[in-house]
Design brief:
Blueprint (H helix, E strand, L loop, with lengths): L4 E9 L2 E4 L4 E3 L11 E5 L2 E6 L1 H17 L3
Antiparallel strand pairs: 1-2, 1-4, 2-3, 4-5
Length: 71
Amino acid sequence: MCLATPVKIKKVSGTRAILENGREVDISLVATAQAGDWMLCHADLAINTLSSKEAREILGLNAACHHQGTK
């Protein structure tokens, strides 16, 4: 299963953004994206912007689900 994950933008150049984790994504769908914004990203595509509160909540839920699968 693939999930879109929240990541913070470090730098924007045209329709590409460099993320804090070092990945580069296409921001064509979210043309107003700026450095410092949280983005919901899947593969190399930014899907939507998020507030920092939303990003933290999703990251927390993702971490909680990951730990449930370990024994």
